[in-house]
Write a structure and sequence with these properties.
By secondary structure, this protein is α/β, with parallel strands linked by helices. The protein has twelve helices and 19 strands. Strands 3, 6, 7, 10, 11, 18 and 19 form a seven-stranded mixed β-sheet that branches. Strands 14-13-12-15-16-17 form a six-stranded parallel β-sheet, with helices on both faces. Strands 1-2 form a two-stranded antiparallel ribbon. The termini are close together.
Length: 342
């Protein structure tokens, strides 16, 4: 089978690799489509994220969907040809965090595409049967790749605790930011500001439900002006770029909630301590998702026409080098890039 390996900064190698075989309780999947995530881009362009550095070669990709080829022993209710979204997280189910129901914080997590565990940029993969999420026929495999990032967004929305009629701001309109805007709209936010320097992403933010779109030129001043100097109830930092969190703090109302969803490149991020203290803000940090995959699947199934336009580009596995270049350079109006691996 064909496997795409990142072998250096901004350098992929696509080659033949060994065929996997399902064992007891496992399923062999033909990978049909895999979304390119922001964390994939960090590994590609920077060689890691914070203190997590890449050990080359590495197989990235953790937003997959595919079709069953065959099942291993003791797997029931799953047949060849069935279509699934594929959950990349394999928690141990035995540590303290797992026992508390916080599987995303598992002490012994195997997360496919990080920590030396190969991801899904390959043609076939073996997974535990319980990591398969059935998808309805009207959702394509390409659109089903949105389930994993949408689950992250729904996890972040739990922290936001948005009440109908509250206001929100989203900094960064990449795929996670765009999905956050959509989730806020569906949850009843009365007004949403989106902050994004890339023009075509601002256009996509409007489609997803943003009422106001701003570039990166002092957006907090506009948000404060629009809210009579009050600020918004909840703000999401989905960009995690240098200085964005300061703007988020400035945009928030007193007693507001800051949800930090983005993945920063740096180890240390400067915060506006005065603003945090005087406004008595609450900060929530988001790490992947937890028990939200089925809810994300259901939301996507109900609003598939709404979400589907986020998938703007597809490229074959053999063209993964060109695909990542498009995303890295924000070329061609790219929203979500999907690698088709079948």
């Amino acid at each position: 089978m064909r496997i795409a390996e990142l072998i250096g900064l901004k350098k992929f190698r696509v080659a033949d690799g060994p065929e996997p075989e399902p064992r007891k309780g496992e399923v062999l999947i033909q990978v049909g489509a895999v979304g390119v995530c922001g964390s994939d881009m960090h590994y590609y362009a920077e060689g890691g994220i914070g203190d997590s550095r890449v050990k080359y070669p590495v197989v990235l990709g953790h937003e997959p969907a595919g079709t069953v080829i065959r099942t291993g022993p003791d797997v029931t209710g799953i047949s060849p040809g069935d279509r699934f979204a594929l959950e990349p997280a394999i928690p141990c189910q035995a540590c303290e965090m797992c026992r508390r129901g916080l599987q995303n914080l598992c002490d012994n997590m195997r997360f496919m595409s990080s920590g030396g565990v190969p991801g899904f940029f390959r043609q076939r993969v073996v997974l535990p049967a319980h990591n398969l999420i059935p998808i309805p026929q009207h959702i394509s495999l390409e659109v089903a790749t949105l389930i994993e990032p949408l689950a992250v967004v729904l996890h972040s929305m739990k922290f936001a605790s948005l009440r109908p009629g509250e206001t929100a701001a989203v900094f960064g309109a990449g795929p996670i930011g765009l999905l956050t805007i959509a989730a806020l709209k569906l949850a009843g936010a009365s007004r949403i500001w989106a902050v994004e320097p890339v023009a075509h992403r601002r256009d996509m933010a409007k489609h997803m439900g943003a009422d106001v779109v701003l570039d990166k030129t002092d957006p907090e001043k506009t948000i404060l002006k629009d809210t009579s100097n009050r600020g918004v109830d909840v703000a999401f930092d989905c960009a995690a770029k240098k200085g964005t969190v300061r703007r988020v703090v400035a945009s928030l109302a007193k007693a507001g909630r800051l949800v930090y969803t983005g993945i920063p490149s740096e180890l240390d991020i400067p915060f506006d301590a005065v603003g945090l203290r005087k406004k008595e803000l609450t900060i929530y940090n988001v790490y992947r998702s937890n028990h939200q995959s089925e809810a994300a699947r259901d939301l996507l199934a109900t609003h598939s026409r709404y979400f589907a336009p986020l998938v703007t580009h597809t490229k074959a596995l053999d063209d993964i080098q060109a695909a990542f270049l498009v995303v890295d350079r924000y070329q061609d109006g790219v929203g979500k890039m999907v690698i088709t691996a079948a």
